[in-house]
Sequence to fold (78 residues):
Amino acid sequence: MFIEIVNPDKTIFEGEAKAVLLPGVDGFFEILDRHAPLISVLQKGKIKVVDGSGNENFYEVNGGVVENLHNKVLILVD
Fold:
């Protein structure tokens, strides 16, 4: 799946990934390849992206929103 993490100033991450773990307002949740479409609000916390090689990358965010549609995950963060 393709993941893009964007804040108002720049693109933080852009590329293919196996999974992404997100800090939702009701707790952490994970999006995997071919996940059902969703839109959700994020709270302050860390986003974990597992890239195609299995490397884990962490990004600290102050909140935001996520949209998953057609195997593309767009994450807009503060």
The chain has no helices and eight strands.
